[in-house]
Specification:
- The chain has 7 helices and 5 strands; from the N terminus they run H-H-E-E-E-E-H-H-H-H-H-E.
- By secondary structure, it is of the alpha+beta class.
- It has a 3-stranded mixed β-sheet, with no helix packed on it. A two-stranded antiparallel ribbon has the order 3-4.
- The two termini are 22 Å apart.
Length: 156
Amino acid sequence: MSDPINRKGLSPRFWEKKPIHKLSRKEWEALCDGCGKCCLNKLEDEETGEVALTRVACRLLDDQTCRCGQYDIRHQFVPDCIVLKPSNIEEHLYWIPQTCAYRLVYESKPLFDWHPLISGTAETVHAAGVSMRGQTYSEFDIADEDWEDHIIEEPT
């Protein structure tokens, strides 16, 4: 399967050389590893603030590609879908998965070997077992009160 993210023409290891707020839009988008975890519905404990990921995915997530099926127009279908940006990453860190490149770069940690920017292919995130490929349920199929039955441990 080809990589829907254009990673061609980027400076080698740009994320190690530039501050996160100086990344171009193309560089920012290239940080996405394609795991699909950001599109999982989350449960937040009101007392502790702890966030748990569930296998219950946004209605737009394609379970096989781990990509949004309507990325460019997703807000027409899911108005509260968060657009993660360098300017708002800090306020969203509490729910961003531990393996996410956006979190890793923000925290000045190295990317994993399976990340497409390191491996050169988008398939390594799936081969490493980090993605949600084939592991999700549509939010249309699981009642809200049953989401707790679908909590996953991080990282998967």
